[in-house]
Amino acid sequence: MRIMGLDFGSKTVGVAISDPLLITAQGVEIIRRKEANKLRQTLARIEALIVENQVEEIVLGLPKNMNATEGERVELTLEFKEKLERRTGLPVHTWDERLTTVAADKAMMEAGIRREHRKDYVDMIAATFILQGYLDYRSSQQ
Question: In 26-44, which positions are buried (b, 16+ CB within 10 angstroms) versus exposed (e)?
Answer without folding.
Answer: ebbebbebeeeeebeebbe
